[in-house]
Amino acid sequence: MKKLMLLSIAALAIISCNKETSAPEKMKTAYVDTSKLLEENTEAKDIEDKYKVKSEEMGRELRGEASRFQSEAAAFQQNAQLKGQAWAQAKGAELQKREQELSMKQQAMLQTLQQQSGKEMDSLIKRIKTHIKDYGKKNGYDYIYGTGDAATVLYAKDAYDITAEIAKEINEQYKGTAKKEEEPKTEEKK
Description:
- It is a single chain.
- By secondary structure, the chain is mainly alpha-helical.
- The chain has a single domain (28-174), classed as Protein Binding, DinI Protein, Chain A, CATH 3.30.910.
- The protein is built from five helices and two strands.
- It is elongated, with a radius of gyration of 33 Å.
């Protein structure tokens, strides 16, 4: 009886191993060059231009203060010998304090610009990732890989590159959003 039981278990095991499995579906994959996508992204360029202008405006303000400081420092050099050592020490300490304040102001401005632009770029990247995910679902992709600065694909055929398609869709979507934002402004002026 034990032999019969072992034979039937062995037969079941052999039969179950011989089952034909259905062929797996062909997977649809593609990749996006993320660094190229950001280079060609209209909104990213607009963000970069916006903060370049802000940086130049803040730089002009700082340059004005710095030139006033330099002229005071030059005057200090001339007056230090005439007005004596006590005056020179007091004025020197005051100038040092102003120099530190200028430096701190410059650092604060740079940090503010970096934080603001960083928030906008993070938001943009989040929207791009969402768009790629939606694109993949809409077009039946199983996987969409990313290449670029943080490469997750070491090699892919160019035929799988959908960067241009994604960039075109995102830029068109951004242009549509930008037009919607501009329309109320032109109506208000009328």
